[in-house]
Amino acid sequence: MSVNQADTVVVGAGIVGLAHALAAARRGERVVVFERDDFAVGASIRNFGMIWAVGQQRGAIYRRALRSREIWLDIAAKTGLWAEPSGSLHLAHRPDEVAVLEEFVASAPAARERGVTMVTPREALERSHVARPEGLLAAMWSPTELNVDPRLALPAVAEHLVSEYDVDIRFGTTVRSVDLPTVSTTAGEWRAGRVFVCSGNDFATLYPEVYADSGLVRCKLQMMRTGVQPGGRPLGPMLCGGLTLLHYAAFDGLTAREALAERMGEELPHHREHGIHVLLSQTADGRLTIGDSHAYGTTHDPFEDEGINEAVRDYLRTFADLPDPRVTERWTGYYPSLRDGRTELVVSPEPGVTVVNGVGGAGMTLSFGLAEEVVAN
């Protein structure tokens, strides 16, 4: 009986797995991807579609995000994938929010070189027709953010891998075990030189001891989406408000953030308790994606809390006025997260095998750049 062969096996066809498949294929390797589900259903399609460089940890991680952005744009140019270079606006309606943004811009030369700058209320409102003008004091404009539609982007990336690089993607196929050079799957055995395990929330099938010792937990989040907005007018820049300044690592260590965190804790205890910060993005057909909350643990209840959704919508109204805010979809998402400051888990449990996980909520933003680094080692 003949045995199927590949240079590289990738386990998982979420964005992390597809990124590693692309990085390996670009090096001329024969790549096969195994995905246990029949199509993408996990965190890689349950997100904002934001390639959000500006929020990433300054230094190497920010550069990784910018490299990922380049790859997204390259794929879009080759496939017609909707990828809108919309940029982002951090809207500040309170003085302590302005102070954090000003301190960030002053202390982040790499971001300034990429065009990140403070803008006046008038300049912000010229860029965004939904930004709330009442009480707007200033905003931070960043041109680096890219908006994709995750439910279209994942299939497009997979098809690009197949058509451009002859990558073999096997959906509906579970990898049972790895004992290189043998990879055992529900569709037979393969021989391969190396394996990248990018299994997302599945901590049990392959190398469970790695995950048990990793510090990974699961983040549960709640998100919503509106219908197509009247007139089909584009959103323009993706938007956020002051709560976001307490969420992203780019703002860690800023002196002004301490006062902001104290006020937010006093004024918005429910939001802080549930890890709420609010972002607004768009889909290819003009719907608006709103979220989200963050709860961390090894196991979560499966229920959605409408009080959290209401808190998200209430906060959105403090910085944005949507033409039609009616929600047509709600969902719960889950992704693996490291809570100790690490930005990813990259572990080799045995020669030729690399486990890659734990990119948290930045998978769309970081995966392509991370994969290039991992595959090259």
Based on the model shown, name its key terms:
377 residues, nine-stranded mixed sheet, 33% helix
Describe the structure.
The chain is of the alpha+beta class and 377 residues long. Helix content is 33%, strand content 28%. The protein contains eleven helices and 20 strands. Strands 5, 6, 7, 13, 14, 15, 16, 17 and 18 form a nine-stranded mixed β-sheet that branches. Strands 1, 2, 9, 10, 11, 12, 19 and 20 form an eight-stranded mixed β-sheet that branches. A hairpin with a 2-residue loop joins β11 and β12. α1 runs parallel beside α6 and α1 packs parallel to α11. The radius of gyration is 21 Å and the shape is globular. The mean pLDDT is 97.
Short description:
This protein has 377 residues and is α+β, with helices and mostly antiparallel strands. It is built from eleven helices and 20 strands.
Described by the principal axes of the CA atoms, the overall outline is: globular
Quaternary structure annotation? single chain
Number of helices: 11
How much strand? 25-35%
Integer average pLDDT: 97
Give the SSE layout.
Blueprint: E1 4-11, H1 15-26, E2 31-35, E3 50-51, H2 60-79, E4 83-84, E5 88-92, H3 95-107, H4 109-113, E6 117-119, H5 121-127, E7 138-142, E8 146-148, H6 150-165, E9 168-171, E10 175-179, E11 182-185, E12 188-197, H7 208-212, E13 216-228, E14 238-240, H8 256-267, H9 269-273, E15 279-282, E16 287-291, E17 295-297, H10 306-319, E18 327-338, E19 345-350, E20 353-357, H11 363-376
Parallel strand pairs: 1-2, 1-12, 2-9, 5-14, 12-20
Antiparallel strand pairs: 3-8, 4-8, 5-7, 6-7, 10-11, 11-12, 13-16, 13-17, 13-18, 14-15, 15-16, 19-20
